[in-house]
Amino acid sequence: MILPARYVRWALPILLALLAVLAVAGLMSGDMPLSLARTWAGLRGDDPLAATIVWQIRMPRLIVGILVGAALSSAGLVMQAFFRNNLANPGLLGVSGGGAAGAVVTIAAGWASASLWFLPLGAIIGALAASAAVIVLARRGASTERLLLAGVALNALLGAVTSYVLTQYTGLYERNTQILFWLMGGVEDRTWEHVQIALPIVVAAAVLWPLGRPMDLLSLGVPEAQSLGVDTRRLRRHLLVLSTVLTALATAVAGAVGFVGLIVPHILRLLVGPEHRRLVPLTLVGGAAFVLGCDLLGRAAGGLRLGIVTSLIGGPFFLWLLRKLP
Amino acid sequence: MNALDLSGVAVTGRLQPVTLGLPRGSLIGLVGPNGAGKSTLLQVAAGVLPTSGKISWQGRELRSIPVLERARCAAWVPHGAQFEFGFSVRSVVSQGRFAHGDDEKGVDEALARLDLTRLADRSVNHLSDGERARVLLARALVTEAPLQLWDEPLAALDPRHGLEVLRLARSLTEAGSTVLFSLHDLRVAHGLDRVVVLRDRELRACGAPAEILTPELFLDVFAVRAHTAPGLTLELP
After folding, report:
1. What CATH code is carried by the domain that includes residue A280?
2. A308 is in which domain, residue-wise?
3. Any B CB within 8 A of A224 CB
4. Can you tell me the distance from the alpha carbon of B236 to that of B38, in angstroms, rounded to the nearest whole number?
């Protein structure tokens, strides 16, 4: 780790402060920039126009961004411990793709408009199916090669499903724009309904919170973890469900946003070391800050979507990581 | 009461049915040529490999012991463990306290006993094989488990640390624990309380070394001829 041991305990407060700054910046910036004073007035409801902008447009987007960032980065952390491979993450393994495909099918079939909950449900089913496929493929060991190839195959398959759905519904303009949204990933135009859909992420994060230590042991491999007192079957099941639900909920409200689960845990591990007890809270907060930062960056760059920004950062980062592999 | 009882324990393709009992407080060597099934037997005894047959620790059937409690009853030291993430030495050693509510009890002492104090903050991935083997032994030590199962703990150690680990094992057995470990040095095995001999995935013999480590057995199991002759002897100062 880069950070000297005595500074490690400052990592969480610093990240929280960063998150707070980014959150305020997120509320201030947009098509109609607000001053800090006006944002505050809007938050308090003293300025009706600012209040509408802050509470109806920017706050839901902000909260969705925080939840999506926390969910995707912690899902990445969980997958890395689960597969004992620090390149594992929801995007690479096709779990995000599964969620997106599930969401797209739900929209195309017209179910998404029937109930608010069908869309996340579709995403969860898609993500679970993709997770199951990865588990089966990785049963004989989760080497980087196997995981990468499994991800390539799954992503291709899921891409085909989504493209097929798209070509079948070319006539339905509205549905297609909705579908495109999920393919590219973003947090614009999110409403309080989306916040509601994503809210269970908080519960999943709370369940994940105390699992840091067992995750350390699981990363040693199942036999060693077992001999040290971890109920590996139960823990693996919990982690699998958690990472899938986290990814699926994030995908259901923001589409397929790639690389968050790869970049954030990686950087934090470099900074504070590999202990999951420490990494779990840090990835939750760090992931949220990363997504808010990317969203702000995209807005500053003239409306680049979140998924595009994270991919622009994540792609080169991933290549850099691959270069270091033996 | 025996510390470890195996009854008809077998693993398909890796171990023929084994039945044996190991008394408490003894220091036991597990010997046999490469591929004889030593690691498999240790994994089975540690309860980390699914098996047919019955395993009991201190007279309690393994199946009836909850997973968390098992970690307080028996410690297993794998041979050549791999770490995907570079935990610090101290962090790995304290993993042995997981089943005790993650207190740090005994961690400093274990680090000192295995001569790891100055490496405590080093990443386990930046250690030599021998140093890493000592880290795993330290972790087994802090579990305070009365049954210690070590897979080739001496293989990568230099002479001094090898002798220290043997002395540590002896002090554990004197305190009532039982240590079963695999090794290749038959001269060391000769000085232990008991030896278990495996050949071709089968139990070949089990008993006091003076009785079973005969020239015939050496020739039969290891295909070597044994002589007793004065030679170089090493001991701790």
Report:
1. 1.10.3470.10
2. 64-324
3. yes
4. 28
